[in-house]
């Protein structure tokens, strides 16, 4: 019985386990095919979702672009304006001089840098043509004339070089901060770059980005204490201010240096009012590295970053600031490594970060480049020269200027104001402002490496040359 039971049982077992692998296989294959089907469905759904997201954002972009394009003024801003600057007739030289040194071909850049050039008025028009908000009301009102002297509401030329603009939500007012350079230009020693003693940081306020009221020097130089960073014989350049929503403080970052540019540090100052006075806190070398041209950028999530030229201007470094914006965090990324870029001006459009930089040629102008990145900490890709119009030399020299800031124009996504300095090394206080429309849209001008669903991730960044232009009326 027991045996029979055992046999019967065992045969039952046998029949059940006759092909154990096969049964497991068939169960496995059905669960396998079910899971394949399930994953395919999930995959398809995901693809559909992604596709709808992409086409939705494409649709939104097209709608934004279409609404942008519907502004006739914007179309005017994107019109290509050529510039025909005629070289002056070669100036006479004595036979002896000609023998001693054969003449090299003079270029437009040489003429620009020569303060005795007969075509100097083209680059540095005189006071008679100044933009004057008190006199230009009417037909000329709100028009920018890049390179012309720009007067404040008291009739003095604006002193806000290497500057940036803060829009203060609380007072709904724009504040333009920059180097106050209204002093004599000189060279600290024979081979040193032209300089003006530190006077401080100038601040101007405006509601329309054209009429600027002088709010005074909001961070002043130190006259007596020679060991102070702000002692007049040192260097204070490229000040930028952002507002900290958590602490309620206006925080200023700037390039602090000595006359030989070997201190290469950043300085930080704070104020509870946009018009100062700012209290100078301290200077440091961020992450122990030399830091020269710099800017700061506040992202939509409130995190702020510093971007500075470092390692003898070979690379740019980007670092998030601490929550109070008074220091750098330990995170630091090197970007545009070995590219020797400076004068960074960073902005964001539709979730993508863009940056304009210049080459490193001191006060002399050179070719700008536009860069783009998905993450602010990089990698950054170079898009090419954003300058459009003028002529080849004008484009090659960033309209004879150097980037300092890019300001979003409210109400019209994709339109920005490109702010640059036309330095006058012979008389730095007479350096001019070049403000031009910058748009983001259309295909990038250089074959980009990054693609998203077959289309390039970045749009073209274009800065349009105009002798005279104004912002759309919105
Ligand atoms: C430039 C820099 C300016 C200033 C100048 C001095 O390269 O962008 O901010 O430092 O050099 O020569």
TrEMBL record:
The keyword Membrane is annotated on this UniProt entry: yes
Xref: Pfam families: Glyco_hydro_43
Transmembrane segments: 21-51
Family recorded in the similarity comment: Belongs to the glycosyl hydrolase 43 family.
CDD domains to which the protein is assigned, alphabetical: GH43_CtGH43-like
Keyword annotations from UniProtKB, A to Z: Glycosidase, Hydrolase, Membrane, Transmembrane, Transmembrane helix
Organism from which the protein derives: Olea europaea subsp. europaea
Record-given protein name: Galactan 1,3-beta-galactosidase
GO BP: carbohydrate metabolic process
InterPro entries: Glyco_hydro_43, Glyco_hydro_beta-prop_sf
One term of GO molecular function: hydrolase activity, hydrolyzing O-glycosyl compounds
């Amino acid at each position: 019985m027991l045996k029979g039971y055992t046999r019967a049982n065992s045969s039952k077992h046998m029949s059940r386990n006759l092909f154990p692998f096969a049964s497991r296989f068939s169960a496995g294959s059905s669960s396998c095919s079910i899971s394949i089907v399930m994953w395919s469905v999930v995959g398809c759904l995901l693809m559909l979702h992604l596709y709808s997201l992409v086409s939705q954002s494409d649709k939104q972009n097209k709608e934004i672009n279409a609404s942008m394009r519907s502004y006739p003024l914007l179309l005017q801003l994107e019109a290509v304006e050529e510039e025909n600057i005629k070289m002056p007739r070669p100036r006479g030289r004595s036979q002896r001089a000609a023998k001693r040194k054969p003449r090299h071909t003079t270029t437009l850049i040489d003429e620009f840098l020569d303060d005795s050039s007969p075509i100097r008025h083209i680059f540095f028009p005189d006071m008679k043509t100044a933009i004057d908000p008190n006199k230009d009301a009417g037909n000329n009102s709100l028009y920018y004339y890049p390179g012309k002297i720009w007067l404040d509401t008291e009739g003095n030329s604006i002193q806000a070089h290497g500057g940036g603009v803060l829009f203060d939500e609380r007072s709904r007012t724009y504040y333009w901060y920059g180097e106050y350079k209204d002093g004599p230009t000189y060279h600290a020693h024979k081979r040193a770059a032209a300089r003006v003693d530190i006077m401080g940081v100038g601040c101007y306020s405006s509601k329309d980005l054209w009429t600027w009221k002088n709010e005074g020097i909001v961070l002043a130089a130190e006259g007596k204490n020679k060991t102070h960073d702000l002692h007049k014989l040192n260097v204070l350049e490229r000040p930028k201010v952002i507002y900290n929503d958590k602490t309620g403080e206006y925080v200023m970052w700037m390039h602090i240096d000595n006359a030989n540019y070997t201190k290469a540090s950043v300085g930080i100052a704070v104020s509870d009012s946009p018009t100062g006075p700012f209290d100078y806190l301290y200077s440091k070398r961020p992450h122990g590295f030399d830091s020269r041209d710099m800017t700061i950028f506040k992202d939509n999530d409130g995190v702020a970053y510093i971007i500075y030229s470092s390692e003898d201007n070979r690379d740019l470094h980007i670092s998030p600031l601490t929550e109070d914006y008074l220091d750098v965090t330990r995170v630091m990324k090197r970007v545009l490594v070995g590219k020797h870029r400076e004068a960074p001006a960073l902005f964001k459009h539709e979730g993508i970060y863009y940056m304009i930089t210049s080459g490193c040629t001191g006060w002399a102008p050179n070719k700008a480049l536009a860069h783009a990145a998905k993450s602010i900490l990089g990698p950054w890709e170079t898009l090419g020269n954003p300058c459009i119009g003028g002529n080849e030399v004008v484009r090659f020299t960033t309209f004879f200027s150097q980037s300092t800031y890019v300001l979003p124009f409210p109400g019209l996504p994709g339109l920005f104001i490109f702010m640059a300095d036309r330095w006058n090394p012979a008389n730095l206080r007479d350096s001019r402002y070049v403000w031009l429309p910058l748009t983001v849209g259309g295909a990038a001008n250089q074959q980009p490496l990054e693609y998203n669903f077959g289309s390039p991730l970045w749009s073209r960044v274009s800065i349009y040359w105009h002798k005279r232009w104004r912002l759309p009326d919105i």
